Amino acid sequence: MALTISVYHESFTLAEVFRISRGEKTAAEVIRVTVSDGHFTGQGESVPYGRYGESIESVTAELESVKGKLRYVEDHALLPDLLKAGSARNALDCAFWDLRAKISGKSVAELTELTLPEMCVTAQTISVDSVENMQASARKLAGAPVIKVKLDPEAVVEKIAAIHQVTPNSQLIVDANEGWSVDVLKAVADQLKACNVVLIEQPLPAAEDAALEGYECPIPLCADESCHTADNLETLRKRYQSVNIKLDKTGGLSEAIDLLQRARELGFTVMVGCMVGTSLAMAPAYLLCEGAEFVDLDGPLLIADDRPNGFSFSAGKMWQPSPFLWGVK
């Protein structure tokens, strides 16, 4: 029987306003895709991202355009030829993996030969705000093993020092979301290292990160907006020591597996990251966590009400409960 592909726009209110250097949001606007063979149905989720020229409308149009070209489960292999790397391909790729698990009676972990973690430590995120508000947010997370801090160029050291003061044992990851200059980075790096910052994500705009070549930062630098697929890893080696793998950038789990393998071969450390989405978006990425030094899959914690049968979280740790919403037999 030919496949039926359905596309849905869904909105999830956030628990509180989420701010990064580029702006703020109060809801997670996601695309959910289902693929059915008439007996079994697989599902996947993605987050269209304006930074990459995506919108709910454009991603929906991409998905609608390929429906007639994907008639059978085996057509999963055609996705890289039909859709560019991005959130449209991500939702569809992950829906196909979920469907294949249900048809085969094997989990996606078994089908991909990936190790399903029993549990992993995930960073918990503090969004851009005043020094006082960011310290108050950090105080609520006191004891968390890893905290990710979104920062614009303003009061960088003051904010990190205030957070470190109330979470002295937490490792801190700073995410500038392309909002700094190389001069800002060089001015704050030593002081951030003294506050237990262990990683700085995407300090410069992707188009300007050639300025990082030759700079020996005291804190490892992680490529996020500069790293989508494995295609430009050789160039990134001159600028970064780590890469952030997000399925909405790679175009799904299939390409993410290739990116993880190639990044490890080239000596990068790896972060598995996410956009702000539900447990359905985190589930495929969770399979990559055994191969990563850092995990940032706290998207469901930012949402007021996650999907049913999603991840469980406690004290900075996450695990897949049973029953679970994706990728299982």
UniProtKB/TrEMBL annotation:
Asked if Magnesium is a keyword of the record, the answer is: yes
Residues annotated as transmembrane: none
Class of this enzyme:
isomerase
Domain Mandelate racemase/muconate lactonizing enzyme C-terminal spans what residues? 131-222
- Residues annotated as binding Mg(2+): D175, E201, D224
- What's the EC number here? 5.1.1.-
- Keyword Transcription regulation in annotation: no
Family assignment from sequence similarity? Belongs to the mandelate racemase/muconate lactonizing enzyme family.
Its protein name is: Dipeptide epimerase
Q: Which organism is it from?
A: Alteromonas confluentis
The upper taxonomy is: Bacteria, Pseudomonadati, Pseudomonadota, Gammaproteobacteria, Alteromonadales
